[in-house]
Specification:
Blueprint: H1 6-11, E1 18-22, H2 26-32, E2 38-41, H3 45-48, H4 60-72, E3 78-82, H5 91-105, E4 109-113, H6 118-127, E5 132-137, H7 153-169, E6 173-177, H8 181-190, E7 195-198, E8 206-209, H9 211-214, H10 231-247
Helix pairs in contact: 2-4, 4-5, 5-6, 6-7, 7-8
Bound molecules: 3-methyl-2-oxobutanoic acid.
C-alpha cells in the first residue's frame, strides 16, 4: 500500500474529495486507514476519551502517546496530530514540541488552531521543515462557547483573511470548523490549499468528523454530525450477554479453558 504524502493531499484539490476522520488508537486507525486519506489524532480526545469539559488541559505527552498508537495502524493515510493548547505559544516552543510529536510518533504533520498571530508560528514551523495544517472557524482551544462563524459579511471577510494568511504561512491544508455554507465556499474557491470541513457544508475539498460521534459512542450529536450507528447500544447488549453468561456459568466453556 502506498503511503499518501502531503503532496498527494494537495493534489486532490479540485479533483477528489479528501476523506478524513479522527482516531485515538491503533484499534481504530487500522480500520479507518483503508477508507481515509487523512487521519487526525484530534485533541477532541480530551472530551471524548478523558471526559474533560474542553480540550484545554490535554498535554503534549498524552497527545504523543495516542499518536504513537494511531501510527501503528496507519499504512496509507496521512496522519496529522493536534498540537495541544499552550504548546505553541512561541516560535521556539512550537518547533520544539512539533519536533517532539513527530519524532516520537512518526506522524506526517501537526495541526494548529488559529489565534491572533499564529500564522507566524505556522511560518516558522514550515520553514523548519514541519508540515502544518491550519484550523479556523470554531477553534475549541480558544473559544469557551460553541458558535458557528462566517454568518455576517464582516465575519466572512475576517475568516477569508485568516485563511489566506495561513496559506501564505505555508500550511498544506486548513480545517474549517462550523463555517457558514457560503463562507466555506468562498474560502475553498479562493485558496490553493485544500479545505477540510467539519460542520461547514459540502463546499469544502474534504470532510472530517470525530469517529466516536459517527459511531454513536460519544453522546455528542450536534446537527453537523451524522450518527451512522449506535455502538453504545451494541456494547451494552454484549456486556449484558456476557454478564448473564458468567452468572449462568455459560462462559467460559471447555473450549475457552486450558
Ligand atoms: O480535535 C479534533 O478532533 C478536531 C476535529 C474536530 C477537526 O480538531
Amino acid at each position: 500500500m502506498i503511503k499518501l504524502k502531503i503532496k498527494n493531499i494537495l493534489k486532490k484539490k479540485n479533483k477528489k474529495l479528501i476523506i478524513s476522520l479522527t482516531a485515538y488508537s491503533k484499534t481504530i486507525s487500522e480500520i479507518l486507514d483503508k477508507y481515509c486519506d487523512l487521519i487526525l489524532v484530534g485533541d477532541s480526545l480530551a472530551n471524548v476519551l478523558y471526559g474533560l469539559k474542553n480540550t484545554h488541559a490535554i498535554d503534549l505527552k498524552t497527545m504523543t502517546n495516542h499518536a504513537r498508537s494511531v501510527m501503528l495502524g496507519v499504512k496509507k493515510s496521512t496522519c496529522v496530530v493536534d498540537m495541544p493548547k499552550g504548546t505553541y505559544n512561541t516560535k521556539n516552543q512550537a518547533l520544539r514540541n512539533a519536533k517532539y510529536i513527530i519524532s516520537k510518533s512518526n506522524c506526517d504533520a501537526v495541526k494548529i488552531e488559529n489565534y491572533k498571530n499564529n500564522s507566524l508560528i505556522i511560518k516558522h514551523l514550515v520553514k523548519s521543515g514541519i508540515n502544518v495544517m491550519g484550523h479556523i472557524g470554531y477553534t475549541p482551544q480558544f473559544k469557551e462557547k460553541f458558535k458557528p462563524s462566517g454568518l455576517s459579511k464582516l465575519e466572512q471577510d475576517k475568516l477569508l483573511r485568516e485563511a489566506i494568511k495561513i496559506q501564505t504561512a505555508g500550511a498544506f491544508s486548513i480545517v474549517l470548523e462550523c463555517v457558514e455554507t457560503k463562507t466555506s465556499k468562498l474560502i475553498t474557491k479562493t485558496l490553493k490549499i485544500p479545505t477540510i470541513g467539519i460542520g461547514s457544508s459540502v463546499n469544502c475539498d474534504g470532510q472530517i468528523l470525530v469517529t466516536d460521534d459517527i459511531l454513536g459512542l460519544s453522546g455528542f450529536y450536534p446537527k453537523f454530525v451524522k450518527k451512522y450507528t449506535n455502538l453504545k447500544k451494541i456494547i451494552e447488549k454484549v456486556t449484558k450477554e456476557y454478564r448473564s453468561d458468567v452468572i449462568k456459568k455459560k462462559f467460559p466453556r471447555k473450549k475457552n479453558s486450558y
